[in-house]
Write a structure and sequence with these properties.
453 residues, alpha/beta, six-stranded mixed sheet, 11 strands, 52% helix, elongated
Length: 453
């Protein structure tokens, strides 16, 4: 009978078991084993694989995943759902790995290998975080390598060193469920963030919507009506994405510029989605957009020009206005066209600063419209970072180009050249901003510019 604290040697003689190192020492040894797998002293060293030995790297992996997620999505909330997704995906992948090891008749090593893979994932996630933070990815392939290639490379190396080329099969069994869990997310690449991606607060929707009439009235009652016979500029500005302040800052800066350089003081209505401030502006949604366009239409004369400037994230045919529990859907090109037509605005400059904003041109194009976009229908635009004052196209157009000319058409051409030059210098894919000029809008704009001079 084996006595506690004793173990039998090859001759059946019971000898004292060596003392089990404390958990911290075992964890450090496991980490050093994974880091040094290509070294002879570590390549076959046993991995401590008790429940506590697995729990330590599992918790560290969760922390590493949260940190990497924060680098990747700096304004998204860390909530219980996010943590459950991370932990659940990891558990599913490890179960798949153990099943593959059983099929490969390596079940005796299963727990050791799972603990080693957890440590390898900790290392990979930390390296991936550094790779993502070091510089912006310039393409989807580059981004995929930094995020997933770096994250899983240590797990692959570890399994190959432990199992030889059979480690490839073990890694495949591990990575397949991970890929399946990530598949819905990959399918959403290029679309605006979903409304449940960001849960920063619990909004009182009833109070928010009760305040909308008053907030709109504050904007509309200050409108100065146009002077008959004098071409003047009116504007509706909208910031759609509520979780990055760059869009609100663009709207506020454009309003100041219009008032200062384009004689549009008290002729601008601003709509803003901002999760940090729900009382300064009406929401940027379909209802408020229609109301704002109808308000400036009432104040305009036939010779006046309306500017509709919208800035946010975007996807093909979509301008993002989704705001968790507040605004339930995004705007489409048809939404904008319907709103302009119902307001009865004849002469309009539509400026869209968003990824894939060129996809709106076909629907919005009309003889009395000038349409300027930050990107074409197939490409993204750049600079939508919360720390920025402007997006890249917004700065090129409103700050740099309009400082040289007050003609929106000429300024758009200047911005096209500047953006292309910047993207080439930074090895970014071209966003290819678009300009559409209807055949009747030119003479209206010329008359307005002449009056400005």
């Amino acid at each position: 009978m084996r006595r506690k604290g004793l173990r039998s040697n090859t001759k059946g003689v019971q000898i004292p078991e060596p003392p089990n190192p404390p958990l911290l020492a075992r964890s450090v040894e496991n980490l050093s084993t994974v880091l040094g797998i290509w070294h002879a002293s570590c390549s076959r060293r046993l991995i401590h694989h008790g429940m506590n030995d697995a729990l330590v790297p599992a918790l560290l992996l969760l922390v590493a995943q949260v940190l990497s997620y924060r680098v990747l999505q700096p304004f998204a909330a860390i909530n219980i759902q996010v943590l459950q997704n991370f932990a659940g995906a990891t558990a599913l992948a490890l179960v798949a790995l153990m099943l593959v090891l059983v099929v490969m008749r390596k079940s005796a090593q299963a727990w050791q290998l799972c603990v080693g893979v957890l440590w390898a994932l900790v290392i990979g996630n930390l390296l991936s975080m550094l790779a993502l933070a070091a510089s912006d990815a310039t393409s989807l392939a580059d981004w995929m390598f930094r995020k997933f290639g770096v994250t899983y490379v240590f797990a692959l190396i570890f399994l190959i060193f432990r199992l030889g080329w059979h480690g490839l099969a073990a890694f495949a069994g591990f990575i397949v469920p991970t890929a399946l869990v990530a598949a819905p997310w990959f399918a959403s690449l290029g679309t605006p963030p979903a409304n449940d991606d960001v849960v920063l607060f619990d909004p009182d929707t009833e109070m928010i919507y009760a305040a909308q009439n008053e907030l709109l009235e504050q904007q509309t009652t200050r409108l100065r009506p146009g002077i008959p016979g004098t071409p003047e500029l009116f504007a509706v500005l909208g910031a759609g994405y509520p979780y990055e302040g760059v869009f609100r800052r663009e709207v506020e800066a454009v309003e100041a510029s219009l008032s200062d350089r384009f004689a549009a003081e008290n002729r601008v209505i601003s709509l803003v989605n901002d999760d940090a401030d729900l009382t300064s502006y009406p929401l940027m949604n379909r209802v408020n957009l229609r109301a704002a366009l109808e308000a400036i239409s009432t104040a305009m004369n036939p010779e006046d020009v309306a500017l509709l400037f919208l800035t946010s994230h975007g996807a093909p045919g979509i301008f993002s206005t989704t705001f968790y529990d507040v605004v339930s859907r995004d705007l489409t090109a048809v939404d904008l066209d319907d709103a302009l037509q119902e307001a009865g605005i004849d002469n309009v400059i539509v400026v869209l600063s968003a990824c894939y904003s060129g996809s709106f041109v076909e629907t919005l194009s009309a003889p009395n419209r000038l349409i300027l976009t930050a990107a074409d229908a197939d490409n993204v635009s750049f600079g939508c970072n919360d720390q920025n004052e402007w997006t890249d196209w917004g700065r090129a157009f409103f700050v740099d180009a309009l400082a040289q000319t007050r003609d929106f058409r000429e300024a758009a051409r200047i911005a096209q050249i500047a953006v292309a030059r910047q993207e080439k210098a930074e090895s970014l894919p071209p966003s290819s901003p678009l300009i559409f000029e209807g055949e009747r809008i030119g003479r209206i704009l010329d008359a307005w510019l002449e009056n400005l001079d």
